[in-house]
Structures are given as structure tokens and as C-alpha cells.
Design a protein that fits this description.
By secondary structure, this protein is mainly α. The protein is built from five helices and no strands. The protein is elongated, with a radius of gyration of 19 Å.
Length: 130
Amino acid sequence: MSLSRIATFVMSFIIGAVFGTAGTIGFSSGADLLYLGLILAFVGCAAILVSLRILAEDRWAAIAGGVGMYLAVFVFSMRGPGGSVVVPDTGLSQVWLIGVGVIILIVAAWPDFRRLRAAAPSTPEQTPTR
């Protein structure tokens, strides 16, 4: 494993942790207005995982970002040393916890269509006739 690949995984993990933290802090805002905070948190987390997968051209970079993201969600869902809780046990927080895991699984399991396109037999381009 090359040094650049390890650096990619580490940076993906850190980026995922940052987005997981931001989503965990912001998902409950706007709960009275069509759950806007939850929707934006899901969109942001999905977008960063998809971009990690596309830019690194590697499923493992997205998985490293997903691990960082879910670890941040998990840590902030626990009771702190002073007894404070960032994510209270509500239905909305359960949707957030499960939804982040589902997003990570979907992005990580999505097939790589470049390999399918490369393996498909090429057809000659047809020029339109007049």
C-alpha cells in the first residue's frame, strides 16, 4: 500500500468525521419546518461520501470517510462525562442514526460502472443519414 493511498484514507476519515459532526449538531435544527436540518445533513453527508468515492476512484476512500462519519455520530450520541447529551433519544435522532448508516452502505455498495463500460463490447458509432 502506497503512502499516497494511506494519506487518502486518513484524509477521508477526517473529512467524514467533520461532516458527521456537523450533521449531528445540525440535524435537529428546523425540525418544525419540514425537517430541513435533517434533510440538509443527509444531503451533505451523502454528497461528501459520493465525492470521496469519485475523486479517489476507490470504494475504500468512501468507506474510510463513512467510518469517520459514523464514529462522530456515535461519539456525539453517547452521554458525555458531565452527563450532557448532544443527541437526545428521540424519533428524529433515531432517523439520523439509521439514515447515516444507510447512506454509507449505499455509497460503499454502489457498483463501479466504469468497469462495466470498459468490459462491454464497443459498437461503431452510427452517423445519421439524410
